[in-house]
Amino acid sequence: xxxxxxxxxxxxxxxxxxxxxxxxxxxxxxxxxxxxxxxxxxxxxxxxxxxxxxxxxxxxxxxxxxxxxxxxxxxxxxxxxxxxxxxxxxxx
Length: 92
Known about the structure:
With about 90 residues, the protein is an all-alpha fold. The chain contains six helices and no strands. It has helices at about 1-5, 15-20, 30-40, 40-50, 50-70, 80-90. The two termini are about 25 Å apart. About 10% of the residues are buried.
């Protein structure tokens, strides 16, 4: 979660999430190099054991989306819930 709210001179995922919400999208594309710059161990885990690391990343994104969305402007109905994300992970 900290990664998505961390302000860097190179990337700002909080702004990216805001744009994602304004465009009614439910997918955030994150550059693995940004993750590696923030936390190399976590980036390596995502690459080597994605099924172990993806749920935490998905939960973090849902948490940030829930925090920054404007209920007057953004509907979260189309956004997958944590349980939906876990169900998708289980099916893989």
